[in-house]
Design goal:
Blueprint lengths: L1 H33 L25 H13 L7 E2 L4 E8 L2 E6 L13 E4 L10 E2 L2 H7 L2 E4 L1 E3 L4 E10 L4 E5 L4 E6 L7 E2 L4 E6 L2 H13 L6 H14 L4 H10 L5 E5 L4 E6 L6 E2 L4 E7 L2 E9 H4 L7 E5 L8 E12 L5 E9 L10 E7 L6 E5 L4 E2 L4 E7 L3 E13 L2 E6 L6 E5 L1 H10 L16 E12 L2 E6 L10 E6 L15 E7 L7 E7 L7
Antiparallel strand pairs: 1-2, 2-3, 2-4, 5-25, 6-27, 7-22, 8-17, 8-21, 9-16, 10-12, 10-15, 11-14, 12-13, 14-16, 17-20, 18-19, 18-21, 19-20, 22-26, 23-24, 24-25, 24-27, 25-26, 28-29, 28-31, 29-30, 31-32
Helix pairs in contact: 4-5
Length: 536
Amino acid sequence: MNKTTSLIALAAVAALAAVGGGAWWLGMQQGMGHTTPAPQPAAGITGSATASDDPSLWTIPQGEEATRRHIRESLKAGDVDPATGRRILNYHDPMVPGKNFEAPAKSPFMDMMLVPRYAGGDAADASTVTVSPRIQQNLGLRTAPVVEGSLVSEVTAVGNVVWNEREQVVLSSRAMGFVEKLHVKAALDRVAAGAPLAELYVPDWVAAQEEYLALARLSGDGTDTLKDAARQRMRQTGMAPAHIQRVVSSGLVQPRFTLTAPIAGIVSELMVREGATVMPGMTLMRLQGTRTVWAEGALPESQAALLRPGARVRTTSPGAPGQTFEGQVQALLPEVDAVTRTIRARVELANPQGRLVPGMLVSMRLDRPKAAATLLVPSDAVIHTGRRSVVMVAEDGGRFRPVEVTAGLEVGGQTEISAGLQMGQRVVLSGQFLIDSEASLRGLEARLNQEPAPTPPRYTTDAVIDALSGDTVTLTHPPIPALKWPQMQMDFQLPPRAQQPRDLEAGDRLQIEFEMQDGEVPRITSLQRVAPEPRK
């Protein structure tokens, strides 16, 4: 009984499982029959239907599909794409920014197709970068106008005081004599103008004076001529006019001579002592005037170029607190220190009280002559790369264009611009480095540190036309040693039709000049027909 009951229970469970499974299978079939599969997104661009009206917003697969279509439709840079209605600028590999190509092809760097770049689309201009207003706000981009004005600058320098050598007087002996008395005993003694310095006894003057006095006692015709000759001999012995006048007026021999100071100043050098014998031409002492002094300051070459002789100078010194000395630039000394790369500016300062003395430290403020009006921009807007200076110009529609400029003097946060900008343009003050990074990635011609593209070499060869197809010609040419090419048949790109001879056809003999192109067939720059070889 128990065994029979168990068998019946198992059979019931199996029946229920079969019914449930069948119901599940029927429900699935009905559900699948009423379900419509979701359409799959297009893998690329077909016809004029694109995922976006702006080609710059295409994905890389969409750009690759556009390049394949360009190959099928024989489109290249400069043509208008009928699917977008925009002119094709060039082709590039998104993984290798900065390298542009003129024709659609497979990337020489990656296992993918090149991607086209169009003109006129948002963020697609070849010379600008577009930043949306939201991103501009997030980056905190600020701009400022280009204005016209002139910079009034002041050059500062530190220098040392030295004597003004133009106020130096050298006193020397005019005849052989003896120093009987010195009124100055040591160097650096101060003297007043006209003060006695030394008393000299000059024996050579005695004979000339006695000759004149003897003739002065004579009277009669011809004595005046003799007296004039005697006066001339006294002058030749070195007597000063004032000393000669004393002899004439006193009628006595004057063998002693008092040397006086011609200027006020100090005795910078004293070469004689009392009792010394002096010879003609011997230096007795040097007097240095103190009415003016020189201050020589070292200026960097760039600042020295802004100064001119005559510029006003205001000077202060710790040795004369509370006092300002006025002067002017006397000269920029024609010598550059090879170590510090500085030029010395010589400034002449008034020193009425004699408080400025050699060796004293001074701080100088030199006025730069007012410059002519020029364009000015905030210094924060200028990007200095070491090779050139660049600013980011803000244009309409959120576009930014890098522009190379010629920067001049920078004073007070303003920089002179002598070339590259126009008044009224706006330049970026903050965030320009981020914009420039985007410009560099896109390979703009004005990006920072870009070197001018070298001119590709050109080659010349003879050739024979085998076939013509659009702007491509198939030629057979002899070996070209410069390229290590053997004789072969290959395709070349023809120059514009205006530069081609008329009615070119297969079999024509040509002489061509061509240059190589990255990722494309060689481009013919000039060609001309060659007369066929005469039959033998």
